[in-house]
Amino acid sequence: MPIAYLDVPEGIEIEKKKELVKSIYRAINEAYPFPPDHRIFVREWPLDSVSQNSQLASEPPRPVFQIHTVPGLSVEAKRKLIRSINAAVGKAYDNLPGFLILIQEYSQDRVGINGNLMSDDQEHMDELSRSIGASSRSKAA
Fold it and tell me: Any idea which architecture 3-140 has in CATH?
């Protein structure tokens, strides 16, 4: 279920972008190893469409990564996820400064899939609990 948005300056080549999303996917999948529905949206912005401290087209741009997911991941697993994503974006964008990563967690009663609350699907809920528990335990070991 993790859905991620990466807001970055435009301009990297498609091969770098492919490598970037594969690296981000691996990091997300390691943290959240449940049924594959990990979505990553790369949103590229021209500098004249980004304001930093009220200045349009200011350099260097500071990218932002947001991930929307379910709760339950340990703090150590979140640290590892953040380090992995930071490394992938840093490699693709030559370590742009001020890279911000935000993790937004939603309880399953606040997520709908195909018109139904995730919390209403007990089989799915059990699988999520097992996956997150196993992921958090393996990161702590």
Answer: 2-Layer Sandwich (3.30)
CB 117 within 8 A of CB 79: no
Determine the average pLDDT of the residues in 10-17.
94
Q: How far apart are CA 43 and CA 89, in angstroms?
A: 13
Residues 23-42 pLDDT 10s: 999 999 999 887 678 999 99
* Secondary structure element (H or E) that encloses residue 83, with its range: helix 75-92
**3-state helix vs strand vs coil in the chain, percent to 5:** 45, 25, 30
The pTM score is 0.82
Q: In whole angstroms, give the CA distance from residue 102 to residue 104.
A: 6
Residue that has been written with the tokens 């070991």 in this structure: 141
pLDDT(140) > 60 = no
